[in-house]
Design goal:
Elements (H helix, E strand, L loop, with lengths): L6 E3 L2 E3 L5 H8 L4 H7 L4 H6 L3 H15 L13 H22 L16 E3 L2 E3 L11 E4 L5 E6 L2 E6 L3
Helix pairs in contact: 4-5
InterPro entries: F-box-like_dom_sf (IPR036047), F-box_dom (IPR001810)
Protein name: F-box domain-containing protein
Pfam family, one: F-box-like
């Protein structure tokens, strides 16, 4: 008897002998991007990665971990692609933030902004005087619409309009 993951079945050699239920249970503990990558391993895992139950539990767990207001996502009414998109959104957003923070990255320009000028000794300070700065202090407000960033003596609220 072989001690590897392969076994012989009625239709020949089976390389992935785990039942779908076990695979589903294991994938529920993976992050959403890893689930997408696991999709490429074999047909058996590929099939399980399209289970609605997997993406609802993944999104539910993500809401708990990131303190996202759960009613933001009406999971019972969302399609499978919408569930997968919502579950991977925080990772895609963080990748964009990291890209924008790099010296050779792109810069995110707001769709709309409201400028509040403040009086400083000798001049008015506004958006035109702003310079690109790197920040590591930011927080996505529960609900996912607002992002708060801070550096030095500034606090900035971004309306992501999602």
């Amino acid at each position: 008897m072989e001690n590897d993951l392969s076994s012989s079945g009625a239709h020949g050699r089976v390389l992935y002998p785990l039942p779908d239920e076990v695979t589903l249970e294991l994938l529920q503990y993976a992050d959403p991007l890893s689930i997408r990558k696991m999709r490429l391993t074999c047909k058996a895992v590929h099939r399980v990665t399209y289970e609605r139950k997997l993406w609802t539990s993944t999104l539910d767990r993500l809401c708990d971990e990131l303190e996202i207001f759960k009613p933001t996502f009406p999971m019972d009414k969302m399609t499978l692609p919408e569930l997968e998109h919502a579950a991977t959104a925080p990772y895609r957003f963080m990748d964009l933030v990291k890209l924008c923070s790099s010296p050779h990255g792109i810069y995110v320009i707001p769709f709309q902004s409201r400028e509040h000028l403040q009086r400083m000794p000798g001049k008015w300070v506004g958006q035109a005087d702003a310079e690109v700065v790197e920040t590591h202090n930011f927080c996505l407000v529960p609900g996912g619409r607002f992002l708060i960033a801070s550096w030095e003596s500034e606090l900035i609220l971004w309306d992501l309009g999602l």
